[in-house]
Amino acid sequence: MFQPIFIYVVGFVIVVSFNVFANDKKAAVNFYTEAYPPANYVEEGELKGITVDTLKAMWQHLGEKEQPISIVPWARGYRYALDVDRSALFTMSKIPARERMFKWVGPIFYSTHVLFAKKKRKLKINSLGQVFDYDIAAVRGDISEVALLQLGFPSSNLSAVLKLEQAFLMLETDRVDMIVLTIHGYYHLASLIGFDTKEYEQVWQVNKVGNYIAFHKNTPDSLILKYQTAFEAIAKQRIAIKQKYDLPLDEY
What we know:
This protein is an alpha/beta fold. It is built from eight helices and twelve strands. The strands form two sheets. It has a ten-stranded mixed β-sheet with strand order 1-2-6-3-7-12-8-11-9-10, sandwiched between helices. Strands 4-5 form a two-stranded antiparallel sheet.
């Protein structure tokens, strides 16, 4: 049963811990996440999302009580998962540069990173080199920004912002030509802000990556195997969860 939210301050950063059970013993793993719908986010005081619900279904399958999940800024959670034993962070895209830095459970779902532009601009991109001629907005530190830079996109043409809403505002006011985000992120943003999706279009696919729960590299292999086995055993539930959050079929 969902329990009250406890907020405490660490340094100058507010950390929100969702204690989904009371009076339990110290968790075997400290789970961290960020607010990034539809994978993980807070709505009316409840932590939910594709990965959150999947993790809860895994605990249920294992016959274990739900464990606390702390919402922290991405950079802080990343550092915990990288440096602190028995830590895990979700939802993390598994890319070659990260593969040996963590142990992985998943993939929970996939992210297709694409470039969106105003349809009236009638932009036609036929090659990666043409992308480099435009100004693009991306969320700072997000895998979509990383993916662009890894392709050699010039940083001078990239506007990094803190939130996706800011990137969209730059597109709307013609401060940039395109924004980069996932397909599911695009439709979630449309429902959040209320813009007409028919006025925009995909002009280029950047990449497609799997999203996982990333565990500290010293996490015992037996624990990773336990979670991965549970993950695979709840295949039908995972499909239902993706349907619940209207995940596009090509990102299953």
